[in-house]
Amino acid sequence: MLQKTHSVAGLLAAEGVLLHFQVPLLSWDTAAALLLGCLAGPLADIDKQGSTMAKVFFPLSFVLRLVDVRHRTLTHSVLFLFGIGALLLPLLPEPLFWSFLLAYASHAFIDLFNEQGVELLWPIKLKFRLLPKFMAIETGSFMETGFRYILLLLCIALPVRYYWDTVSGLF
Ligand SMILES: [Zn+2]
């Protein structure tokens, strides 16, 4: 999937977390969580040469390439997710921690709709995919654009639905 699709999915994940913790819409926590969501969503593609995340975190992506980590393996695995979770748990307040973690997890999850599949259980070399190949969403395709718009609509609908009082108070 494209970086922008992953960002929207990460944003949606962060919104879900904010609603769960009932964080006020107009707060620094909300702003930080949404930003984290947008960044954590595409982060796993740091393993893909030429991706924006690989460029932004160049030293890390360089190391991954040096040790020959293939795309959609280590950084897209459940093992890595737990590793990041264990590392960040003591560092971030709960809403930010879960926003980051679920946004990060959304990456591998939506990659499962792609035809290439994901090695979720890396280092076990087994590719997972949620849809049969003929139905899978090809990266950059018309289907992916549609999928992204659905996610985007949800991103707009969620705050409108649950923060209506605050949203309507703005106008
Ligand atoms: Zn990916």
TrEMBL record:
Pfam families: YdjM (PF04307). It comes from the Bacteria. The chain crosses the membrane at residues 74-92, 145-164. Keywords: Hydrolase, Membrane, Transmembrane, Transmembrane helix. One of its GO terms (molecular function) is hydrolase activity. PANTHER family: INNER MEMBRANE PROTEIN YBCI-RELATED. This is Metal-dependent hydrolase. The lineage of its organism: Bacteria, Bacillati, Bacillota, Bacilli, Bacillales.
